[in-house]
Amino acid sequence: MDQESLPYIVEPMRLQDIPEVLEIERLSFPTPWPARAYRYEVGQNRLAHYFVARQRFPADREEQVQEKDTSLLNRIQSWTQTTRAGELSVVGYCGFWMAADEAHISTIAVEPKYRRQGIGQLLLITAIEQAVKLGASLLSLEVRVSNLAAQNLYSKYGFKVVGRRARYYSDNREDALIMTGEHVGSAPYQRLVHRRRAELHQRLERVALATSQE
After folding, report:
1. How many CB atoms lie within 10 A of CB 90?
2. Tens-digit pLDDT profile for residues 147-189
3. I need a surface site. Which of 35, 94, 138, 180 has the fewest CB within 10 A?
4. Residue 167: its pLDDT value, please?
5. How many domains are contained in the chain?
6. pLDDT above 70 for 95
7. Angle subtended at Cα 107 by Cα 57 and Cα 104, rounded to the nearest 5 degrees
8. Which residues are identified as catalytic?
């Protein structure tokens, strides 16, 4: 499926994205990272790789797409023009650290009003694909034991629970599960990611079509 038909795009995080990232961070985590942490990650840490998801449509998209213009080609052209026209809102972000052949996913978050629309999954796919390009064969992360939605998402991509960190989270002393995805550069794993990406693109295309018809 053509990437231009997706309602969201994923790009490397820039320093100027940090204010929007911090707002999502504040809404997503009880102990958010400070701005200086993101400035270091994005501007100085050569082992860090961070990405943002942007909404392809600006808030005034209704004025840019005519109500009677229902051809997919014209909608795609309109969306592409608005993408080039200016800055687009950050609706989610993720990041990972590379160490040898392991990529550790340090964070992933989506603005609350955009959750359950596939953005988190799109960010996870991006992290996986970029980590593999950098030579990763193992992915790892921590997740709260109570965060079943995140655990289910990671399980869809072959992550398995391999350990537990007691009282890992400082806000409530909740335990963290350690989850890993192994052999992520292998052909079977890449087929899994390709299949999941195709499924997600179909879902996001339906979102885009519904949005353009509002």
Report:
1. 21
2. 999 999 999 999 999 999 999 999 999 999 999 999 999 999 9
3. 35
4. 96
5. 1
6. yes
7. 125
8. 142, 154
CA 83, distance to chain mean position in Å, is 18
- Establish how many alpha carbons lie within 13 A of residue 187's alpha carbon, considering only the half-sphere containing its beta carbon: 0
**Residue 90: CB partners within 8 Å, gap ≥ 6?**
17, 20, 21, 24, 52, 53, 54, 111
Read off the amino acid at residue 190: Q
**How many helical (H) and strand (E) elements, i.e. helices and strands, does the chain have?**
7, 7
Q: Strand order of the sheet with strand 8-12?
A: 8-12, 48-55, 90-99, 102-110, 138-144, 176-182, 160-165
pLDDT category at 74 given cuts 50, 70, 90 is low
* Residue reference for tokens 């309109």: 78
Query: What domain range includes position 36?
Result: 3-212
CATH number of residue 205's parent domain:
3.40.630.30
What is the C-alpha to C-alpha distance for residues 138 and 180, in angstroms, rounded to an integer?
A: 7
pTM above 0.70, yes or no: yes
